[in-house]
Amino acid sequence: MKIRKLTPENYAKVAALLRQAFPGSSYEGQLVDNLHKNGKEMHEWVCIHVNSVIAYIAFTKAYKQGEVCGLHLAPLAVKPEFQRQGVGSELLRFALRQEAIKQSPIFVLGAPGFYQKFGFAPCSTPVCPYAKKKEHFLSLRNNDTSKFTVGYEAEFRGKKG
User: Tell me: the pLDDT tens digits for 82-125?
Assistant: First the structure.
């Protein structure tokens, strides 16, 4: 298994992976496609195994009143046949060590049991506009105690939480 920065020639493979990893949802694939089409700055990596993309992780900018205040982790996806084998954990550990990521506050809307193993903690400030269940909104290296609603890139509109 090799971890590489995502390149445009693997966009279609990532789209296929997202369809497999999130069956019944077109949201994640459409989100990534729209972010790419609109030229949004992203930090993205893939796990490659035998020339196949088996996992993907992306980070986009998080905003506080229009100013960048950190990064959003979304999505993190692993091909179903490689899930529960540590692939997603290894990709996340790798990403969190990267220069562009390692000092920044990170926000994620996801499974607390998974993300807490990596140091993420429940986040009461800022507030996530998409978190129906507040316990699913977590952060890492977030020291901001002011009350605000964290902003996402426009492509996230319609996010289900």
Answer: 999 999 999 999 999 999 999 999 999 999 999 999 999 999 89
Cα(91)–Cα(79) distance, rounded to whole angstroms? Answer: 13
Residues facing 101 on adjacent strands: none
| CA 4 to centroid of chain Cα atoms | 16
* HSE value, Cβ hemisphere, 13 Å, CA-based, for 126: 21
Helices and strands per DSSP (H, E), number in the chain: 4, 7
Evaluate whether 128 touches 159 at the Cβ level (below 8 Å). no
Bridge partners of residue 150, in order along the sequence: none
Helices 11-21 & 27-37, crossing angle to 10 degrees? 160
